[in-house]
Amino acid sequence: MTPIHVNDPDDPRIAAFRDVKERDLTGRQGLFVAEGEVVLRVLASAASRCAPVAVLIAEKRLEGLSEVLERLPGDVPVHVAPQTVLNAVAGFDLHRGILALGRKPQPVMPGDLLDSLPERAVVVVACGIGNHDNMGGLFRNAAAFGAGAVLLDQTCCDPFYRKAIRVSVGAVLRTPMATALEAGAMIDLLQGRGFEVLALTPSAEQALAAFRPGRRTALLLGSEGPGLPREIIARCRPVGIRMAGGFDSLNVAATSAVALHHLATADQS
Fold it and tell me: What is the mean pLDDT of residues 199-211?
């Protein structure tokens, strides 16, 4: 790894990193921007499903990151710049001093993804998750509790948005997923492959705590507020998390953590 020193924010070699916030929302032709040391370590690891393309870091971070940077493929350029240049490129004060450009994995057919899972598996399914913090939290929880895959419907936000990746502490980069699906089709695929699909909803008569998972379980989560459509819930097994104090629902990321912990630790039939 030979650092490439950059002193001009208009240097064409780092054009892909320019105006991070604005371009996050419009996409980068199959690429994404990752921020921070934790995410960079995931991107550079063998566990990553994404390929590193380039790195831009502050001069002050170079020595401390040398071990991580040495793990990158030899054709991945590592650009090093003063903090002021880095801030000008990003368009905001980049306190972490680390940006990386990565390539998204090739899209996976959802049926092929489910067929690749072991006989005993948990899958997370999301419908209408539009908040990037929640999306990142959902992927972090899926990875932490051993979910085999995440399926997202076509109304979900992009999990490769920079903030979602950061909140997930890099889990987005390593978790098998299929995206842009239709909710009913996802349920058909799952049930056809032996998954019992749980619909998390406050209106459920059965408490999550009383549910004992079988060998294959899918956890279906909807957006905060509207929740899951009634017609979708009707096709699944509704379960709810019992609460005190008049509350009937949790943040969707918190809900996924509670439910995934239960599935990971409950006695299985």
Answer: 94
